[in-house]
Design goal:
alpha+beta; Aminopeptidase; 2 domains; 13-stranded mixed beta sheet
Length: 303
């Protein structure tokens, strides 16, 4: 009788590094996710990853945790919980997720993640609690719209992002996101500089937009702004710099942004839910940051 996978050695757990890059790209392709090699390199350098590989070396599953410093509650983003389609429903995702949760508990970091509808039940079973939702909207290449460019408030000007804006931009982002992600924002500004825009009221930064190339489409976000009119003006400025298909992730609590996206040829793709894990806390805290000024999320893998 021939042997089966169950008869032979099981998958081996191991840390992730760039030596596994091809396998990681295969994982994200298998889920039709948008990450490219630069996304994976950033996540592996900024965080910690766990993988499961078959005895023949095939990477079967992954999970990554990205720590973010915070003056309030330090936290980490759990992302890239992926399993090759032929190996799903064997507990691999839960196994790696528990590895990540144990490490975060030891580091006293609040676990946060953004879940797809397929992943949501897995995270709920592991004790995660829903906070707020957002949805991906997509625009195909070559879509033409008659929507006029939005006008920023009279006292606000939209300009290209410069190094001189960095300090004020990071302060605004820390308020929105709840932690310090200066390394990530710097990487995004370098990856798609043509779309990097800042909104200024006098010398004060009241908004910004960044983006990045992806495997399938350009992802715009994060986009943070203190008012809705400035947010839509930043959106238009960023879109002017982008050709080809575009993804954006817009919070459910941002109706003005959703309306602007629809007028510019975007359509709903799928929902996400932001969750936190209470760990040893008596009750789950709210998600970090001030969601009221988050107009576009950076992406579910980044926050």
């Amino acid at each position: 009788m021939g042997s089966t996978e169950a008869d032979g050695p099981g998958p081996v757990a191991h840390p992730l590094g760039t030596a596994y890059l091809e396998g990681l790209l295969a994982l994200s392709r298998s889920a039709n996710w948008n990450q490219d090699a630069d996304d994976w390199r950033h996540m592996l350098s900024a965080g910690r990853g766990w993988g499961l590989s078959a005895p023949d070396g095939t990477l079967l599953a992954s999970t990554v945790a990205l720590p973010y410093r915070s003056a309030a509650t330090p936290f980490a983003w759990i992302s890239m919980v992926l399993v090759l389609p032929a190996h799903r429903r064997r507990g691999f995702a839960s196994r790696l997720l528990r590895e990540a949760l144990a490490w975060l508990d030891g580091e006293h970091l609040l676990p946060v993640l953004d879940a797809t509808p397929d992943g949501h039940p897995v995270y709920r079973r592991e004790g995660f609690v829903d906070t707020w939702g957002f949805a991906r909207h997509a625009r195909a290449a070559g879509v033409a719209t008659d929507a006029p460019h939005a006008t920023a408030p009279a006292d606000v000007r939209i300009e290209p992002l410069l190094d001189a804006h960095r300090g004020a931009l990071l302060a605004l982002d820390a308020r929105a996101f709840g932690g310090d992600r200066g390394a990530l924002l710097g990487a995004l500004a370098a990856r798609l500089p043509a779309a990097a825009r800042v909104a200024l009221r006098g010398d004060a930064v009241v908004g910004f937009a960044l983006g990045r190339p992806g495997r399938v489409a350009t992802q715009l976000g994060p986009l943070v702004a203190t008012d809705a009119a400035t947010a839509v003006a930043l959106l238009d400025a960023a879109l002017d710099a982008v050709t080809g298909p575009v993804f954006v992730d817009v919070p459910d609590a941002q109706p003005a942004m959703r309306e602007a996206l629809a007028a510019r040829g975007f359509s709903f793709q799928r929902p996400f839910v932001r969750l936190v894990h209470p760990g040893r806390r008596a009750a789950a805290p709210d998600a970090p940051g001030d969601a009221s000024i988050v107009r576009l999320v950076a992406g579910p893998e980044l926050g």
